[in-house]
Amino acid sequence: MSAESSKTTLPPQHQERQPGRESEMQPPPASFADHYVGSGRLQGQVALVTGGDSGIGRATAIAFAKEGADVAIAYLEECDDARQTRQAIEACGRRALAIAVDLGDEAACRQTVERVVGEFGRLDVLVNNAAEQHPQDSLADISSAQLERTFRTNVFAMFYCTKAALPHLQAGARIINTASVTAYLGSPHLLDYSASKGAIVSFTRSLALQLVDKGIRVNAVAPGPIWTPLIPSTFAAGEVGHFGANTPMERPGQPDEVAPALVFLATDASSYMTGQVLHPNGGRIVNG
């Protein structure tokens, strides 16, 4: 192990179930609950954030609320985390909706979008953020069930949610997808996950070209190692203790260090950008 990667960045810890629980993480991820001050850049708009109960999704949902948006979050089964996120949105004076759903099912995605539009009357920003990962040392160890599960959550759900949302998106709407630094650097232990994230980059670029004439912008973020529930629920305790140490900044990022990139892509500040990917990754150069 190199001197860089041996640096301890977090208390070693592990959660036995996926999705992980933010309420069980020490220290808890930073999610804008206190210090972020909005400036009304999303006033009166409606956003749907998948995987919005925790991590990057939670920080993004709260930031959007502080910018004036009503926010719906979709989550799998992390009810306590989702409740806390909903309360944080409401504490910003905005309306919130939390929907427990398996986004790997197309009908469920369609029902989720219809519920958001029925509740809030419109949809302006779709954030496709939900994801899962399952490390394996060898391609031979990746079962067909794991491969399908990874792509169903990470890629199929993105297609399904976007397809369901499009009839409700007007000119000026924004779609933001969460890719990963692994789409550019690869990962020997996250082969199927990295492949799914590479698919998201291509999906983002292609959809942007398809929708540009409709005035709908499509962009993505590709975070590096970020302290979210996915980490302790994926890796062994010892690996968590060194998580993020091999970046130039020698530490993991926090969700509230990624969410500003999504706020930028969700507002008119990024009006001349579509088909692009932003890289909050701790200093890694990926030329992507």
UniProtKB/TrEMBL annotation:
CDD domains: SDR_c1 (cd05355). Belongs to the short-chain dehydrogenases/reductases (SDR) family. Residues 1-12 have a biased composition (Polar residues). PANTHER family: NADPH-DEPENDENT ALDEHYDE REDUCTASE 1, CHLOROPLASTIC, NADPH-DEPENDENT ALDEHYDE REDUCTASE-LIKE PROTEIN, CHLOROPLASTIC-RELATED. It comes from Dechloromonas hankyongensis. Residues 14-24 have a biased composition (Basic and acidic residues). The keyword Oxidoreductase applies. Keywords: Oxidoreductase. This is SDR family oxidoreductase. InterPro entries: NAD(P)-bd_dom_sf (IPR036291), Sc_DH/Rdtase_CS (IPR020904), SDR_fam (IPR002347). Residues 1-36 are annotated as: Disordered.
